[in-house]
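> call design_seq(struct)
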């Protein structure tokens, strides 16, 4: 197994990247049969790593290791667990350049954006280092004089984590921070396209002094087999998954036999609404940030942009002008604003959505074709006069395509915005406070951005409603999904 010289030569600390998975404190460089898989840089197609193709057998071994390590970890004081998370947080920030480099190489996003993701993930470790010391139970009034009622909160146990390729550092940090903070053990499976950020985090877990077996990392191509192994093992008490709604449904079915506790952050189809009284400059800037961050490959990015009739043309002109200034390219090149699509399938979906819209009457006002920056790059694209019968209205594009819909009334746009099975994030720009309250309460989404296009932070509960998922990550509520509540009735007092 190997990491390419092209990647290692960019790192101040090449030891961050063993070409291996981690089970029970042992780095696994080879699996029985010798199967391997390659990791490539989507910006140029170059192979940057060859890793062991771990699977169900290694997953079962990792669950066993986590099961043995968890009880001793849970028995430590909250202050001790907090100190370990704080040390991990500090190590991440000390290596932010290397971690950003790894992320840009395997995922493609611009280097500055990659470092921002690393810091964002570290913020969750800091947050839950503090929250770990605030997991509290209750003493409730008893119904009889000789009894006392206690409520305890205890760690759920071993937690499986399956993370996506679009935020390979932050999504893992956001899940592992509350789990480790409250006393759980972890078996993590990163996306096969982007396992290197997770390997580096595992290495830093070692350096932070986490006990062997507490954090385990499975790298491999066969996600379905690994997920099934997690769901079938009764020693694993919870699974946290970020990815598609289709896979979320499969995991729910597979975990049903032993009532596996699940946290699911699934697909989105975010509306971005601009009302007549909005600050147009601010709205256009917010829409650019929301739509084109990570080349539109985020579950919370603006997927449908609704603009009220009175300002539609002015907004469309301003937004398209800003989109044309964005520069796609290799993430390490100065001045690049947007990286590539993750793979050929992602590019094909973008092209299909644009072709479908144009065939049904949409007007192309910016972009609309592949970029000359490389094979997987697509130009920042803006389409006017998009209608509800187009794929862009119903499906999550996951690419740098902004469809502009026209609407007239508040009631009309709320109905259109809610006309989806998904309910992760929504955004709108308005100045009228009565409108702000009405729309915020009426939108069927777990997260609402009002006069802002960026909503994620470690202090807020991240998650959706409807078919966008179950549970919340981050905030003081984020620890609850990793805890069990126990009622104790003391009699004869």
């Amino acid at each position: 197994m190997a990491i390419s010289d092209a990647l290692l030569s960019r790192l101040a600390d090449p030891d961050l990247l063993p070409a291996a998975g981690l089970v029970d404190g042992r780095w696994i460089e080879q699996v029985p049969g010798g199967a391997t898989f390659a990791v490539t840089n989507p910006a140029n197609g170059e192979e940057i790593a060859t890793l062991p193709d771990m699977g169900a057998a290694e997953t079962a071994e990792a669950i066993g290791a986590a099961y043995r390590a968890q009880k001793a970890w849970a028995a430590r004081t909250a202050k001790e667990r907090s100190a370990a998370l704080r040390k991990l947080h500090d190590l991440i920030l000390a290596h932010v350049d290397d971690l950003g480099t790894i992320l840009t190489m395997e995922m493609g996003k611009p280097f500055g954006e990659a470092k921002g993701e690393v810091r964002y993930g570290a913020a969750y470790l800091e947050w839950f280092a503090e929250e770990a010391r605030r997991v509290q139970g209750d003493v409730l009034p008893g119904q009889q004089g000789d009894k006392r009622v206690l409520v305890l909160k205890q760690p759920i146990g071993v937690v499986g984590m399956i993370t996506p390729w679009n935020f390979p550092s932050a999504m893992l940090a956001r899940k592992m921070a509350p789990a480790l903070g409250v006393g759980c053990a972890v078996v993590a499976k990163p996306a096969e396209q982007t396992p290197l950020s997770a390997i580096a985090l595992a290495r830093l877990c070692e350096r932070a002094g986490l006990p062997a077996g507490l954090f385990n990392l499975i790298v491999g191509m066969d996600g379905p087999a690994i997920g099934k192994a997690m769901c079938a093992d009764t020693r694993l008490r919870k699974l946290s998954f970020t990815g598609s709604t289709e896979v979320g449904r499969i995991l729910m079915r597979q975990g049903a036999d032993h009532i596996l506790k699940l946290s699911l952050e699934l697909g989105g189809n975010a509306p971005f609404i601009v009302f007549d009284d909005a600050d147009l400059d601010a709205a256009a800037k917010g829409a650019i940030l929301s739509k084109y961050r990570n080349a539109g490959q985020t579950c919370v990015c603006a997927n449908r942009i609704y603009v009220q009739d009175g300002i539609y043309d002015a907004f469309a002109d301003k937004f398209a002008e800003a989109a044309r200034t964005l520069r796609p390219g290799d993430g390490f090149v100065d001045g690049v604003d947007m990286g590539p699509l993750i793979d050929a399938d992602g590019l094909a979906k973008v092209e299909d959505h644009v072709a479908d819209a144009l065939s049904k009457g949409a007007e192309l006002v910016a972009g609309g074709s592949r970029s000359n920056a490389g094979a997987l790059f697509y130009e920042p694209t803006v389409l006017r006069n998009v209608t509800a019968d187009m794929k862009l209205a119903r499906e999550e594009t996951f690419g740098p395509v902004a469809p502009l819909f026209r609407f007239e009334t508040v009631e009309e746009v709320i109905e259109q915005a809610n006309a989806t099975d998904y309910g992760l994030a929504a955004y709108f720009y308005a100045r009228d406070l009565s409108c702000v309250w009405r729309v915020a309460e009426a939108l069927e989404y777990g997260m609402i951005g009002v006069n802002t296009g960026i909503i994620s932070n470690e202090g807020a509960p991240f998650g959706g409603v409807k078919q966008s998922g179950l549970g919340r990550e981050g905030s003081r509520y984020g620890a609850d999904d990793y805890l069990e509540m126990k009622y104790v009735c003391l009699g004869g007092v």
